[in-house]
Amino acid sequence: MQGSFHPDYSRVARLFESLLPNGEPGGAALTVMHEGEVVVDVSGGTRDDSGAPFTPDTLALSFSTTKGVA
User: Fold this and answer.
1) C-alpha dihedral over 55, 26, 22, 30, to 10 degrees?
2) Residues 6 or more apart from 52 whose CB is under 8 A from it?
3) pLDDT greater than 80 at residue 23
4) Coil vs helix vs strand at 12
């Protein structure tokens, strides 16, 4: 896992890290804001079969992300 997080949100960052694939292709990024401040900004895993790292700039598909807002 790479990135940064506020110490008060270390449990969120560690939970995210535990959900990353271990030794298999796949990755993710997570940003959490609280009262206008970024408190978690992390990413990890791989973006392809060659093992290139998943970074905050890696493009990813999102499905059904507006249902909660609607």
Assistant:
1) 50
2) 46
3) no
4) helix
